[in-house]
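In keeping with the milestone schedule agreed at the kick-off meeting, the structural modelling team has produced records for the first pair of proteins. Each record is given below as a sequence line and a structure-token line. The laboratory manager (R.T.) confirmed that both were archived under the project's standard naming scheme.
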Amino acid sequence: QVQVVESGGGLVQPGGSLRLSCAVSGLTLNLYTMGWFRQAPGKERSFVASIAWSDQKTWYTNSVKGRFTISRDNAKNTVYLQMDNLKPEDTSVYYCAAGRLTAQAMGTITPFAYRAMDAWGRGAQVIVSS
């Protein structure tokens, strides 16, 4: 049984930091790329960052480059999203997903193609507000 479970969301002030975690089970992770996506109220889900489990190649959307860092812990089957210098526009529900494609491809496919992901978590709320 495949499980993808996010944790670590919360309320943070602008300029602050949060680290999201995504624990994965039931997948042979070396065959997958893990990605973080986000969806704000009334907006379409969008890509944030991805990491290929086998070679740790990463890809980021432009708006988070230099502020967010994606990484993975092979021993814990967990992927992380370190978010620094958070801005109010980062407020969203953040979702973790697994897909059999490259890190770059995960970052460049259209939202219509998100349905091809093999697994999604239920999301973690991040609110950036003073």
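The second protein of the pair:
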Amino acid sequence: VQLQASGGGLAQPGDRLTLSCTASGFSVRNYAVAWFRQAPGKERWWLASIARDSLGEYYSNSVRGRFSISRDSAKNMVYLQMNSLKPEDTAVYYCAKDVLGEYDYWGQGTQVTVSA
């Protein structure tokens, strides 16, 4: 099982950025996938999860309405669209395989920096 997060980079406040999580060794249709982020000096923080099949999407209060998680089962990928980026969104973003709230496999992380 492997996950690889990509799509990070430098963005300006107010920009939109979409992160990708490419999964292998399991189907994103059959397992939930979550996104986390870790800002410098802070703990890793859960942002969003997309449940298996079509059981729904869930968001942290801190990003609900601004971030959107989605899945492409054919490509075995999960996305995190981030709108109206703020400097406080600067962090390393990770995706993880989610088994009933247990995160057993993690991607390597992708850096997002939001700065004017």
